[in-house]
Write a structure and sequence with these properties.
Oligomer: single chain
Bound molecules: NADP nicotinamide-adenine-dinucleotide phosphate, glyoxylic acid
Strand content: 15-25%
Length: 315
Amino acid sequence: MSAFLIVTPTWDATPWAKAMKAARPELDIRIWPETGRVEDITYAAAWLPPADVLKGLPKLKVIFSLGAGVDAILSDKTLPRGVPIVRVNDDDLTMRMSEYIVLQVLMHHRQQRRLDENQRNKIWDQFPTHAAKDMSVGIMGLGVLGQDAARKLAMMGFKVRGWSRGAKQIESVSSFAGHEQLDAFLGDTDILVCLLPATAETDGLINSALIAKLSRKGPFGAPILINAGRGRQQNEDDILACLNAGTLHAASLDVFRKEPLPKESALWRHPRVTVTPHIAADSDPAAICAYLARQIENFEKDGALQNIVDMRHGY
Ligand code: NAP
Ligand code: GLV
């Protein structure tokens, strides 16, 4: 008997249970808190599991994160030791994220919000535009998502650079690695895209000091920020102060320190901020469960798992 427990206290688990049943019909699917006999449960898929739930499953073999980010699993300080945690790396999610990043880059590059405003006011203003080759996009986090977005932006003609822990070799993308190369990466970046995981090292990284190091040589004279990583990485007061001081030209934010973004946040009504409600790359239950089913099939065949979280680094 192999049972699969879904633990999503902040989401409706029903579509996940249906999708998992469709992907692997022989699995006994259970939805927390209706765990049944805990000794039957060998797999758990979770997002923000309450403390002690996963720890209380004595036969658990694998924990699956229901997102690409694993901060919502690692926040459980009672996780059972020695049980591997597998994260999502799925083409459907990756494509959605690249759509979002390309959309936001183009919106700023082609000054779409200015055009919308002009249309609202019936103003025919043929202001100068510029070529993609005149804009450099720097992606912090050159993992699964960052690399895909980097390739797509490079294909469109943008100058693309990326920053990660270790150096990468990606055609038409300049690679910068580690703290020693962060300033060089920032210094020639006109549009900064953040696709980093939330870890102790990335907490609060996007602040006034970092924004001050970005390029001022781009067409708008000040840089642009796009954050679709995690809200914990940004200091929102600093972002607002930089926007108001003109040291940051504009921002697109999909993630926030507190979600939903509180109504009183000045980010909602800032004329140069685009707020999206953490939907840059939605997790589609059918696509993600098909991925989980493939992982379980391989694991049961020869014990192999892909995309295991490295607990030393926290992603
Ligand atoms: P990933 O494949 O694990 O990539 C993470 C990247 O960040 C890697 O390139 C890694 O460097 C780099 N990195 C991590 N810590 C670093 C540090 N201290 N200094 C420099 N580079 C560092 O993850 P992913 O699948 O691309 O996802 C990235 C993040 O996107 C997730 O963790 C999640 O927070 C966010 N996300 C957001 C949404 C949304 O809807 N807004 C959806 C999905 C995911 P190395 O390659 O050298 O290890
Ligand atoms: C969503 O934010 C994810 O981590 O997949």
